[in-house]
Amino acid sequence: MQPSAQAHSPTAQLDLCAALDAAVKAAHAGAAILQSYAHHRADLVIDRKARNDLVSQADREAEAAVIQELRERTPKYGIVAEETGGKVDGVATWYIDPLDGTTNFLHGIPHYAVSIALIAHAGTRVDAGAPLSVDTPVVGVVYDPCREELFNAIYGVGAWLNGHRIACSRTQTLDDAVLATGFPFRDFSFAQQYMPTLHDAINTTRGVRRLGAAALDLAWTAAGRYDGYWEMGLAPWDVAAGTLIVREAGGVAEDMYGVDSWPIGGYVVSGNPSVAAALKAMIAPHLTKKPAA
């Protein structure tokens, strides 16, 4: 099961509007760093963490800007970030990807984003109802600085793109669906599960797209640009914000194996309810044992 921090009290309550405001400001701060490097990427110092797993000074500086903003505004929340790590703590934890789509960014492909999500831990109250029984994404921000598109969502309230409410598509069948996905690129241990799903999708749907930024794949699914999206082998910060945005846009975003309350393990299936159900049915025969975290 997913890691969780014990809430300080069963009645601890979050101010989601204040948290969203903090996340939006942090996303803009991180994006400003990214865009300051956008026209001289060749000068960036790039480190290779593993095969096809790159990090640049842009990632690190953007993450530092995001963390500084969040720590100033929400000092009691935990932070888990891609480059600097962190820990689950308090009543809620921020999950931060300062540059989702690093390879795109480094190659000058204008498709990348800052992704920030707040995960409320079990026992925390986020509205007038009962405390949450499981860890749950409650604030999500995905900011695409190239298109100046800000996707955001609040648990139980809705999802928006640049202030306009968004909703998942109404496509009913895979035959009519355009799907997004991501290929194995760093960890190939799940390739035998993934490749048959891609084969089926290519032969079943209207089309499959792979643009290389999971947070934007989920955000675009929430906005109805894609009808569904699935991917394996991601990190929690890749999918945390997008999961909430899809859910608040009337869609489904789940752990592919049906184990965790949100796709913290990085095996995500999403879409409007009809397409998500059909996509899960298409994927299920190819799934074996969930890889260890």
UniProtKB/TrEMBL annotation:
Reactions catalysed according to its record: a myo-inositol phosphate + H2O = myo-inositol + phosphate
Names of required cofactors: Mg(2+)
UniProt-listed InterPro entries: IMPase, Inositol_monoP_metal-BS, Inositol_monophosphatase-like, Inositol_monophosphatase_CS, Inositol_monophosphatase_SuhB
Enzyme Commission number(s) from the entry: 3.1.3.25
Record-listed Mg(2+) binding positions: E82, D97, L99, D100, D238
Top-level lineage group: Bacteria
Classification via Pfam families: Inositol_P
Keywords, sorted A to Z: Hydrolase, Magnesium, Metal-binding
GO molecular function term, any single one: inositol monophosphate 1-phosphatase activity
Family: Belongs to the inositol monophosphatase superfamily.
The protein's name in its UniProt record: Inositol-1-monophosphatase
